[in-house]
């Protein structure tokens, strides 16, 4: 049986490991802190549409291709998908203009997007604040409980809780680098940088209004916030800061998240705080991942930026195709050599 070392036990690494095990590889995953990186911190949105923006057509296509794999992927893992869609709200006139741009772009790509009146928004999500300048319904963006997903993916996978310093020292026929923001320490000159994000997990206390049924994204005086419902609670994310390797939650980050979440859903003031976390997204210069062969023994699957959860199933398929010597055309925009 051929052996595979996967470096990184996040959503991408564990999806590669899970998929490779099913294809007959003997797989070991290496990570100093398994399942505690960006995939653990994340909100679990599967959102190629509302994470998109004009000009990001490759990212849209990749995201849609991966989203199409999610129903079967989630079903095999026993992880329910939240498929009620996403609502986007804008607070002031400039925020509404941003929603208009997004809606026009989605329309232009033939994706379903509806402008909601205030009355329609209130009927759809009665606990939201009133008086938004604009609101969109985007039914094609979903979510998953990322922590439940990580637990399901890791079942039956051999995970070694150790830092890898040298890929050459790994005893495996093939190696896949899925180390997210830490990938640059393993592969010289890799164009991957940390992009910090802070996030809150909240609990609905007795007597408080319930969270929305759908994911709600808010543009609040130019700042972005998202509220992802969970049974009995809510995930509120996320800040975006280019501050290098820094996983400390800041007072300013929490302040901004709470203020923006409250502008969207006033009831959050009554919720309990379960946890505050910070994670490092693996950013690349063009906001597209790096998926493909680096050398005869090494495949890259990193740099997924804001979309690691979304892109995990497609990345796993692409890595398996690469290992089989048949690279997929639909991830050609993510080839690692594109910057050289
Ligand atoms: N995908 C959302 C985020 O990275 O915050």
Account of the 3D structure:
There is one protein chain. The chain is an alpha/beta fold. It has two domains: 1-82 and 143-191 and 285-340, FAD/NAD(P)-binding domain, CATH 3.50.50; 86-139 and 193-283, D-Amino Acid Oxidase, subunit A, domain 2 (D-Amino Acid Oxidase, Chain A, domain 2, 2-Layer Sandwich), CATH 3.30.9.10. Helix content is 29%, strand content 26%. It is built from nine helices and 17 strands. The chain has an eight-stranded mixed sheet, sandwiched between helices. Strands 9-2-1-10-17-16 form a six-stranded mixed sheet, covered by helices on one side. Helix 1 packs parallel to helix 7, helix 1 (11-22) packs parallel to helix 9 and helix 3 (57-67) crosses helix 9 (308-323). Bound molecules: glycine. Glycine is lined by residues 45, 51, 197, 237-238, 281, 306. It catalyses: glycine + O2 + H2O = glyoxylate + H2O2 + NH4(+).
In short:
The chain is an alpha/beta fold. It is built from nine helices and 17 strands.
The level-1 CATH class of the largest domain:
Alpha Beta
**Beta-strand percent range:** 25-35%
What compounds are bound to the protein?
glycine
CATH architecture grouping of the largest domain = 3-Layer(bba) Sandwich
Radius of gyration: 20 Å
> What's the shape?
globular
Q: Find the CATH superfamily of the largest domain.
A: FAD/NAD(P)-binding domain
Secondary-structure element series: EHEHEHHEEHEHEEHEEEEEEHEEEH
Physical arrangement of strands within the biggest beta sheet: 6-7-5-12-13-14-11-15
Q: Quote the average pLDDT.
A: 97
Helix content: 25-40%
Determine the structural class based on helices, strands and strand pairing: alpha/beta
According to CATH, the fold-level topology of the largest domain is FAD/NAD(P)-binding domain
Number of helices: 9
- Terminal residue distance: 35 Å
DSSP strand tally: 17
